[in-house]
Amino acid sequence: MRPDILNPLFAELDTLDGVGPKLKKPLDKLGLTRVRDVAYHLPDRFVTRRPVANLDEASVGEQIVIPLTPTEHRANSSGRGPYRVLAADALGNTCALTYFGRASYSAKKLLPVGEQRWIAGRLDEYGQMLQIVHPDHVAESSEGLLATLNEPVYPLAAGLTQPKVAGLVDQALARLPDLPEWIEPGQFSRAEWPTWVEALKLAHKGHHPAARDRLAYDELLANSLALMLVRADNRRRKGQALRGDGRLRDRLALPFPLTGAQQRSIGEIEGDLAQDTPMLRLLQGDVGAGKTVVALEAMLVAIEAGAQAALLAPTEILARQHYETLRKLAAPTGIEIALLTGRDKGRAREAILMGLHDGSIDMIVGTHAIFQDAVTYRNLGLVVIDEQHRFGVSQRLMLAQKGRVTPHTLAMTATPIPRTLTLAQYGEMDVSRLDELPPGRQAIDTVVVSVERMGEVVDRLAAAIAGGAQAYWVCPMVRELESEDIAAAEARFAALRERFGDDVVLVHGQLKPELKDAAMERFASGQAKLLVATTVIEVGVDVPNATLMVIEQAERFGLAQLHQLRGRVGRGSAKSVCVLMRGGELSETGKARLALMRETQDGFRLAEEDLRLRGGGELLGTRQSGDTPFRIAELEQIERLLPLAHDDARLLMERDGGLASERGQAARTMLYLFERDWGVQLLRGG
Ligand code: ADP
Ligand code: MG
After folding, report:
1. Mapping DSSP to helix (H, G, I), strand (E, B) and coil, where does residue 546 land?
2. Ligand 1: does its nearest atom lie under 6 Å from the Cβ of 633?
3. Ligand nearest to C-alpha 291
4. Which of 37, 43, 257, 447 has the highest local Cβ count within 10 Å?
5. pLDDT tens readout for residues 380-421
6. Whose CA is nearest to atom 23 of ligand 1?
């Protein structure tokens, strides 16, 4: 149960003044649904304004506060275009106050001719004229504007304004309860951090690195502690020791020898399975590294030992592909494999449920459907989760409840995660790495071209398709501009259709699942030659024939993401090409990033460099999968503060693993505050 002291923070936003149905949508868009979220909606930056007496003292581009007297209102004669109010300073210099759209109505009232007003805004030039577009503030006296000399700038969504958000933040801050301190006293005093309440208030007021650090630290500490609680809980759980005798694995006739990395990983997994503490292991390996066979071997160990094994995939089509692959590979073993997805209904589904219940099915492959309440297993010994990054820790925990005894868990991911983040993302797991690609893979030829050369690229595409190849065309997909991005992908699809007709299909995140699956299937089966997609193909199916990929506006993607996308080609032995098309001029780092893509195909190196090279917020696509699990802590803070938070959490766990002491109780509150309460719920009486 959430501590009562947090209730005001978890109240819905409509408990704040001025929040009605109209604001709900933009607030939702920013992820703001409760008072807590608003309190943590920190400014991106601060505007610093300089008070000046007249225009001669100010320079173009500068944020100023200035007294001006309106002399004339000029509406655009056509009724459209900007509304300008000409205003003069004490020396007789003129400046236009320019308003667009509906804002012009307020200008009429706010700026009566002949009456001096104090104006805050950025001084610009429009032709020969000085102007301030949409002044941030207009006041009758200077006092009102003194408070705005240093003003927060909040992330916005359409339908929200700075003053509106600032007003909500003020209300949220007024409701902050005094929470008990959860940071280790030594750390707290060494760092000279403010208390939680002070830190939040300071972070909204101005540039306060210590306050920001404290808030980031809280989030990191909550995460570390929650993961440690999961691990501790796991150690207490009863699992079953699974020792295979090799009789099924001996019958496998794999068409290739395993790589060293695969053998090593299988060995590590076998070691874990033989323990009666449930395994919690992450198998990390690039797209194409060969995780599926490792999963198969692990599942066969479980089955040899008399248990059942399940493989969970994030999408139906991926589940089906795994099912086909595993069925073929495992055919010589004679085990019973079934597929279960949300699509299966009626008799077929009943038969599978029966088989899982009575144990006649050894291996089940499917989507979430395999863990619905109606599904019971005779003896589930191992759960493999593919594309782990699509599932959160809480979902991983849910799976653990499924068996009579806790099943072993093997999570798999192709997301290259820098070392710094592995701890934060998978701190509760042991990690096996497939750091070696199967032999015979051809390097993917990566080229960077400017968008002006689109015509050439399309010609090249046409030639490849005529030669029997298939290709991906990836358009960026970014949350803030989602609708525009989809429009762009649709427009590109329409344009390519003109040239390639029915050979082209489109897949994006907002298509209905059936349509998405149908398009993917047309492409996977080879009926369609060209797949236009947003980044959904990150978790894609295998199409060995696809040897060409074009990524539009490549500069908007993170390196790790580009790398993962690129991994969709180069799966076979044929030469593959990845065209990184840049949308505009590149900054220095932008250039360095794309050059690095050409240079290396080492996913871990790219992930590390990505972390180093990307300035906060420079990349739009960075909030997608493979991103950090944090909302407050920035990358630089994660690197600097996570080790401290991790130690702090470990110390607390050693001293008070049940979180019963005063500080332990404070830490529980923190876990609820950061919604890592799945950690608390594992504690007895939590
Ligand atoms: P991942 O899931 O890691 O992206 P897959 O398991 O789908 O990769 O493997 C990619 C391809 O490589 C498959 O066609 C698989 O049969 C093949 N493969 C796996 N291991 C080896 C190996 N040791 N040698 C050659 N090919 C392999
Ligand atoms: Mg895979």
Report:
1. strand
2. no
3. 1
4. 43
5. 999 999 876 656 666 666 666 655 688 999 999 887 777 767
6. 258
Is the Cβ atom of 290 under 6 angstroms away from ligand 1? Answer: yes
Q: Are 87 and 97 in contact (CB under 8 A)?
A: yes
pLDDT tier for residue 563 given thresholds of 50, 70 and 90: confident
Residues of the chain with pLDDT > 90, as a percent, come to 55
Strands 83-88, 94-99: pairing is: antiparallel
Q: Any idea which ligand is nearest the CA of 294?
A: 1
Distance of alpha carbon 355 from alpha carbon 334, whole angstroms: 16
Contact predicate 500/529, CB 8 Å: yes
Query: What token pair was written down for 468?
Result: 């029997």
* 27/38 Cα distance (integer angstroms): 9
CA of 524 to the centre of ligand 1 (A): 17
**281 close to 431: Cβ distance less than 8 angstroms:** yes
Ligand 1 atom nearest 295 alpha carbon? 6
Q: Which of 16-25, 209-218, 365-374, 500-509 has the highest mean pLDDT?
A: 209-218
CB of 288 shorter than 6 A to ligand 1: yes
* Residue 63, C-beta contacts closer than 8 angstroms, at least 6 positions apart: 47, 48, 49, 50, 120, 121, 122, 123
* Helix, strand or coil, per DSSP, at residue 685: coil
Nearest-atom index, ligand 1, CA of 259? 23
* Residue in 397, 358, 351 with CA at minimum distance from that of residue 377: 358
Residue 376: exposure state from Cβ atoms within 10 A (0-12, 13-18, ≥19): middle
Q: pLDDT for 268-301, tens place per residue?
A: 999 999 999 999 899 998 888 899 999 999 999 9
Residue 114 pLDDT level (bands cut at 50, 70, 90): very high
In three-state secondary structure terms, 95 is strand
Q: Is the CB of 414 under 6 A from ligand 1?
A: yes
Instruction: Report which ligand 1 atom has the smallest distance to the Cα of 325.
Output: 16
Q: What are the residues whose beta carbons fall under 8 Å from the beta carbon of 685, sequence distance 6 or more?
A: none
258 lines ligand 1 (CB under 6 A): yes
Task: Answer yes or no: is the C-beta of 303 below 6 A from any ligand 1 atom.
Answer: no
Q: What are phi and psi of 422, to 5 degrees?
A: -55, -45
Reduce the DSSP state of residue 319 to 3 states and report it: helix
Report how far residue 459's alpha carbon sits from residue 570's, in angstroms, rounded to the nearest whole number.
21
Is 359 close to ligand 1, i.e. is its CB under 6 Å away? no
Q: Is the pLDDT of residue 423 over 70?
A: yes
Mean pLDDT of the chain: 87
Q: Which ligand is nearest to the CA of 314?
A: 2
pLDDT tens across 253-262, in order? Answer: 999 999 999 9
Index of the ligand 1 atom closest to the CA of residue 258? 23
d(CA 394, CA 409): 14
Closest CA to 190 of 644, 656, 655: 644
Could you say which ligand is closest to the alpha carbon of residue 287? 1
Ligand 1 pocket member 572 (CB < 6 A): no
- Ligand 1 near 541 CB (within 6 A): no
Sequence-distant (≥ 6) Cβ neighbours of residue 305 within 8 angstroms = 242, 243, 244, 245, 273, 381
Contact 150, 161 (CB under 8 A): no
Task: Determine the distance separating the centroid of ligand 2 and the alpha carbon of 322, expressed in angstroms.
Answer: 8
- Region 131-156: mean pLDDT is 87
**289 CA → ligand 1 middle, Å:** 6
Look-up: residue for tokens 């220095």? Answer: 588
Helix 454-466 × helix 482-500 angle, to 10° = 50
Closest listed ligand to the CA of 572: 1
Report the nearest-CA residue for atom 2 of ligand 1.
291
Cα 288 to ligand 1 centroid, rounded to whole Å: 5
Judge contact between 638 and 420, C-beta under 8 A: yes
